[in-house]
Design a protein that fits this description.
The complex is a heterodimer of chains A (about 230) and B (about 500). Chain A is of the alpha/beta class. Chain A has one domain: 3-Layer(aba) Sandwich (Rossmann fold). Helix content of chain A is about 35%, strand content about 25%. Chain A has eight helices and ten strands. Chain A has helices at about 40-45, 90-100, 105-115, 115-120, 135-145, 165-180, 195-200, 220-230, and strands at about 1-10, 15-25, 30-35, 55-60, 65, 75-80, 155, 185-190, 200-205, 210-215. In chain A, the strands form two sheets. Chain A has a six-stranded mixed sheet with strand order 6-7-8-3-9-10, sandwiched between helices. Chain A has a four-stranded antiparallel sheet with strand order 2-1-4-5, covered by helices on one side. The longest helix of chain A is centred in the last third of the chain and has 18 residues, at about 165-180. Chain B is mostly helical and about 500 residues long. Chain B has two domains: about 1-240, no CATH class; about 255-490, no CATH class. Chain B contains 24 helices and no strands. Chain B has helices at about 1-15, 15-20, 25-55, 60-80, 100-110, 115-120, 120-135, 140-165, 175-190, 195-205, 215-230, 235-240, 260-275, 275-290, 290-295, 305-325, 335-340, 345-365, 375-400, 420-425, 430-445, 450-465, 465-480, 480-490. The radius of gyration of chain B is 26 Å and the shape is globular. Classes of the chains: A alpha/beta (about 230), B mainly alpha (about 500). The interface of A and B includes residues 83 and 86 of A.
Chain lengths: ~230, ~500
């Protein structure tokens, strides 16, 4: 689904990302871990064509992202709060995204229904604007909005950060379900090794912009990762 | 401690990308300041001889004192609109070992040195000096100068009270306008002759230096009120945390008829209505509607239809200009979302176009009563509206692709320069000067009707080539996409 070749990004002569080749097949749940500054968000921004690569290219379903915009209909993302529109209520925000993705009202309502547990009565029907919600609730709204229309590629940057433990557990369940049921390709980054090994079938470790580990998740993976980051 | 505060603020000022990026704007503001200093200085020097010359039978000093009431009112009004509340980033300081009183005293003390407090001195001191030179009582005049300095500070702190009390409401201009209006009204119709009252009080106070304690007392009282207000706000749940408003949902399904642009149109309407800055620009529009009243009744402009074109473009285009010049910066807060979502640029821009075009039409309809000043006025407004819809909308959309400055939607609009760059100044030329110039030329060379005809024709041409123009503009936006994404990501 996502094919990366010779990708690099430099900021003022400093290499922040340098990936020779990275292929993420369709339907894979793909996890990205690494310390601060490892290049996780840079990679996601490149996939979304929010920044331009210094060299190389990314193909999303055979479409080169910085040339054509045709990848947009089947790709969605939640990177940070700037993906939210603060002056909308969550309902209006979902509605806006749904219209962009060609999902009608009825389907949207049915879709949101399955997140009732995740929302925990704090998102819908609150008569509050998104900007007035807590950070955690904003994040929930953003993540769910990214799932509307079940896009083939879903990119989530640090989805577990800022969430309370209950929501973290529920979110993990949701992501696994989505991946299993709709065969979406999930791209997730996280600092929480436990969560990401639980959700993702493949984990790539970035360090200073380079891939240093590419693991198929097994029972040993968490240990291996912990050991790696401890040293 | 105070020097630490000053150093902190200096760094905040000089390191903000806003300052660094808009040197031109800052230079411009410095020139404005210099200009006003010169004007006030000139006034201070020339006031005495001028008054002596124009009103030889009156004492210039008395004349000035009788005028003080209006001076104070004007000062209050100008300050409300131009002077910013003294602010400081206090949140990081709250948990540090700094006494709250100290922070508050510092913030208030800082405002004493505001430019607005120095400006009157440029008039007061030279005028006082000429009075002394002309043999007025030394003690009296010195008292007078001190009194005016104190009065300036009183107005300074009074303004903060009014401003912070009214800042919370939407119609933040209403309290000050009604207060000043009421005082002026009371005085004008001699219900309470405040100007004479102030005149008498000033005369009385300057007769004895000890009486200066009265204004000093008032000043201390106002300072105390300010102090208490500010200190109360130093809690996170007070002013530092923004107020939570209940969402007001309105039914915008009528926009659905606009097809693909509908979601963006709804977004824009909500953006305009739910955020402080764009909402206040909507109110500015209403004020702008009355702009014509400055010109049309004035016989001076009777024979200058080119001036009418200016008013026409301005009145029918005020929203268009106010809104259009900051496209797409209005959406800067969530630009990344728009750029990664399933959004064709064309539909996005088309909705902006629709909004601007319909606003021009609406403003034209609202301005129809100006027909009172003659059918020519209405004709000019109509031509200006067509020109606005056909040409100016596209010009603004095109100029928007050069916007690189983020806008914080929750700040107030009046005299807010955030998001203003060279683009906003340059775009004024084709926007206003071009139609005026074209009209003027045809009017002079041929006649009035052909001037109108030219504007209408140009507007219609723009309308006919709409699709082509939009294609060109869209391409411009796509080319600039990455630069805009990264620029809007930076805080000012």
């Amino acid at each position: 689904m996502i094919n990366t070749t010779d990708l690099s990004k430099k900021y003022g002569g400093k290499m922040v990302l340098n990936i020779e080749a990275l292929d993420i097949p369709k339907g894979q749940s793909f996890g990205l871990v690494g310390n601060n500054g490892a290049g996780k968000t840079t990679f996601f921004n490149l996939v979304l064509d929010l920044i331009q690569p210094t060299t190389g290219k990314i193909l999303n379903n055979e479409i080169q992202v910085n040339i054509s915009e045709e990848w947009k209909p089947f790709t969605s993302a939640f990177i940070d709060e700037s993906f939210l529109i603060g002056y909308l209520t969550p309902e209006e925000y979902f509605d806006f995204i749904a219209r962009l993705r060609g999902v009608n009202q009825v389907d949207l309502t049915a879709f949101l229904k399955q997140f009732e547990e995740l929302f925990n009565d704090e998102i819908l029907g609150q008569k509050k604007y998104l900007r007035d919600l807590s950070k955690g609730n904003q994040k929930k709204a953003g993540i769910v909005a990214a799932l509307i229309g079940l896009p083939e590629v879903v990119i989530l940057d640090e989805p577990f950060a800022n969430l309370d433990p209950t929501t973290q557990i529920r979110l993990k369940k949701t992501l696994k379900n989505i991946n299993a049921e709709s065969n979406s390709t999930l791209l997730i980054s996280s600092h929480d090794l436990g969560h990401i090994t639980e959700v993702c079938e493949r984990i790539v470790v970035l360090n200073k912009g380079e891939i240093i580990k590419d693991l198929k998740t097994s029972d040993e993976t968490l240990k291996e990762l912990e050991q790696f980051f401890a040293t | 401690m105070v020097s630490d505060f000053i150093r902190l603020e200096w760094k905040q000022f000089i390191r903000s990308s806003y300052w660094q990026k808009s040197v031109a704007l800052n230079i411009f503001l410095v020139f404005i300041a210099l200009y006003f200093i010169l004007v006030f200085l000139g006034l201070g020097i020339l006031l005495f001889p001028l008054l002596k010359d124009k009103m030889p039978d009156k004492d210039p000093f008395d004349t000035v004192n009788q005028f003080l009431f209006f001076w104070f009112l004007a000062d209050l009004l100008v300050r409300f609109f131009f002077q910013k509340l003294p602010v400081m980033t206090v949140k990081p300081l709250l948990t540090l070992p700094v006494k709250k009183n100290k922070i508050v005293h510092y913030v208030l003390g800082k405002s004493v040195f505001s430019f607005f407090n120095f400006l009157p001195l440029f008039t007061v001191i030279p005028f006082g000096a000429t009075l002394l030179y002309n043999g007025y009582d030394t003690m009296n005049i010195i008292n007078w100068m001190v009194l005016l300095m104190i009065a300036t500070q009183i107005i300074n702190f009074l303004n903060f009270i009014i401003e912070s009390k009214s800042a919370a409401s939407d119609l933040s201009m209403l309290p000050i306008l009604s207060l000043v209006g009421l005082l002026y009204f009371l005085n004008q119709f001699e219900i309470i002759t405040l100007d004479t009252y102030i005149f008498m009080q000033v005369k009385w106070i300057i007769s004895n230096s000890f009486l200066l304690l009265i204004p000093i007392g008032i000043l201390a009282l106002l300072y105390g009120i300010n102090f208490k207000m500010l200190k109360n706000q130093l809690y996170l749940d007070q002013s530092l945390k923004s107020k939570v408003n209940e969402a007001n949902a309105s039914d915008l399904s009528w926009t659905n008829r606009f097809g693909k642009s509908a979601p963006f149109l709804q977004l824009d309407l909500r953006m305009l209505w739910r955020n402080k800055r764009p909402r206040s620009s909507v109110f500015i529009v209403l004020i702008g509607l009355f702009y014509g009243l400055f010109f049309y009744p004035n016989p001076l402009y009777q024979e200058m239809p080119a001036m009418y074109v200016f008013v026409g473009i301005f009145v029918t285009g005020i929203f268009l200009i106010n809104f259009g010049q900051f496209i797409p910066a209005w959406d800067s807060g969530y630009y990344k979302l728009l750029m990664s979502q399933n959004i064709p640029y064309k539909d996005y821009l088309q909705s902006k176009y629709l909004l601007m075009a319909s606003s021009a039409f609406l403003m034209f309809v609202l301005s129809i009563p100006y027909v009172y000043f003659g059918w020519k006025v209405l004709l000019i407004h109509f031509a200006a509206m067509i020109y606005n819809v056909g040409i100016n909308t596209h010009v603004l959309l095109y100029a928007g692709s050069f916007n690189r400055k983020k806008i914080n939607l929750s700040e107030r609009a009046a005299f807010n320069y955030q998001g203003t760059g060279a683009v906003q100044w340059l775009v004024g030329i084709p926007l206003l000067l071009l139609p005026i110039g074209l009209f003027y030329l045809t009017y002079k060379l041929i006649n009035f009707q052909s001037g109108i005809g030219l504007l209408v024709l140009l507007g219609i041409l723009g309308f006919l080539f709409h699709e082509k123009l939009m294609k060109f503009i869209t391409k411009k936006y796509i080319d600039n996409k990455h630069i805009m994404v990264s620029a809007f990501d930076q805080d000012n």
